[in-house]
Amino acid sequence: MANFVDSLDEDTTNDEFQAEAVKAEAPTQEPVIPEKYKGKSLDDIIRMHQEAEKLIGRQAQEVGEVRKLADELIKRQITPQETAHKTIEDDTDFFADPVKAVHKAVETHPAVLQAQQAAAQMARMQTANRLAQTHPDYSDISSDPEFAEWVKSSPVRQRLYIEANNQFDFDSANELLTNFKALKRAKQETVQQAAQQLEDQRERTLKAATVSIDGATGEQSKKIYRRQDLIRLQLTDPDRYMALQDDIMLAYSEGRVR
Question: Are 145 and 183 within one domain?
């Protein structure tokens, strides 16, 4: 019994010795150090990791804020009738060009559009008020077919009309109205002058056809007409001749046409 125990202890001791020998003979594997960490101290490596974590956190926060702003702007633009395809397209535009996408979202925002419409309405009212003071008849002129034809006959006037009508530019409208009224006034003056000249010519013709003589009694004698002047009057001014026809016929009957 004692020999069996001693033998067992001896075998166990031999196995432990061999295991220790094998462990001692096994080569030790050193950890592989990445290139960016070579030559760095432990403090340097810790600082690098801390800076990297800060950078990642800051970038994540910035991306989150920009995405939140973009989502808010996109939500305000989306109407109930728009489809999911539109949302995906907006997201794609944002990631492709965030600045352009944000500008587009702001420009098409309902509040911005409403403000633009209000500004346009204000400009229209201001221009209309100034035109009413400078040209009280501007509404009648703008609806005059002659004015429309006059504008169409010149590319320059067409450009001024577009600026006045679409951009509510007072100077363009004032230029058109002033020139048109001046041109129309000049035409009217020309017509009036021609009519006056014609009337003067009629008077001269009538005077030339009429000769006044004094009677023996000192009373004013009746007019004497020259036949040649009456014929000229009938040809050049038949209306005037018809108006004087009674006097002319009486002159013929009294022998006062020579």
Answer: yes
pLDDT at 219: 44
Residue 72 lies in a domain: no
Whether 19 is covered by a domain: the verdict is: no
* Domain span at 249: 212-253
Domain contains 179: yes
**Residue 225: beta bridge partners?**
210, 257
Instruction: State the total domains in the chain.
Output: 3
Structure tokens at 210: 């009429």
Q: What's the pTM? A: 0.37
Q: Both 140 and 187 in a single domain?
A: yes
Lowest mean pLDDT among 24-33, 116-125, 189-198: 24-33
What is the structure's pLDDT at 155?
Answer: 92
Model pLDDT for residues 73-88, shown as the tens digit of each residue: 767 666 555 554 455 4
Instruction: Report which of residues 57 and 1 the model is more confident about.
Output: 57
Identify whether residues 129 and 176 lie together within a single domain.
Answer: no
In this structure, is residue 205 part of a structural domain?
no
Q: Is the pLDDT of residue 233 over 70?
A: yes
Please provide the distance, in angstroms rounded to a whole number, between the alpha carbons at the two ends of the chain. Answer: 193
Separation in Å, CA 172 to CA 162, 163, 166: 9, 6, 11
